[in-house]
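Could you help me review a protein record that somebody else here produced? Here is the record exactly as it was handed to me:
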Amino acid sequence: MFLRTPPRSSLPTAPLAGLALLLPLTLAACGTTDPGEAAPAPSEAASGDCADVTTSTGPVTLTDSFDRTVELDQPAERVAVLEWQQTEDVLSLCVNPVAVADVAGYTTWNDAEKLPEGVTDVGTRGEPNLDALYAADPDLVIIEAYTPDDEIIATLEEYDVPVLATKGADAADPIANMLDTFDLIAQATGRTERAEAVTAQFEQHLAEGKEAIAAAAPEQTDFVYFDGWVDGGNVSIRPFGQGSLIGEVGEELGLTNAWTGEVDPAYGLGQSDIEGMTAVGDATLLYTSTQEGEDDWVAELTRNDVWAGLPAVAEDRALPFPEHVWTFGGPRSAEKIVDAYVDVFTR
């Protein structure tokens, strides 16, 4: 089985932040299977600005996030992806994946890049259907792992298909980790020129956002971003502290992340209850929009007297981010995060 610890908002039904999820694979899925006829590659353009994208040719040799050597006879064309950030990255590189984990979930939580029609859904991200995965006939499988001995790496290496393992997160420098992941996928798919262009666009977007906020000179530049869920009738809150991607993007814009509590070393995520949010003082409060089918934890917040008494709530500075902004995504999601901050702090 796989032992994985993905972020809670990447699994909206998970009951607790940081909960270790045991993700078993059936014996049939782990064994040798007949892949059958390969699924056709999607033909619709992956991104709106993908005309005339240059793809390198020839063999590819690279070192992935866990110092594994990945060798390809040529840049990967039929790519399968088992995590949403990397799915977004592939699409940003103008590659249409042949297989993706949890298509419905990706579509619900991430609209930075639209999945084209015809992509094979291979089940959940933590427990993919390996029969469906290899029936799609990929020439590369891109995964997200957390340690070099992550069991998903060993399981997939039993098949004669190269596996590119990327690091899930790194609170030491989340923006750099996000861009490094993007660059690795670009090397594997022969799209390094495209990656350089997208990265430059993100950096320009970030710089322009910082200028816009500075010009607006908002009176309050402290913020805390969080999501939450209902647990036993109470609202549990997960602040995105130092080392979170969304927190670091905010600070790059000239804002100050007011959450100083303990966070995990990978995603920069903390834990709190409503009373704990009094520690952030006058900070503007920003939070993930709830989706259909989720517990309406935001409604529970509004019924709480402590919440109502927070300065940001009283001053109408407790605001949801737009829907479908993926807080664990790639450069295009990060651009949407920039836009959301600018909308809040220049209004």
User: Anything to note?
Assistant: The domain at 35-201 is CATH 3.40.50.1980 (Rossmann fold).
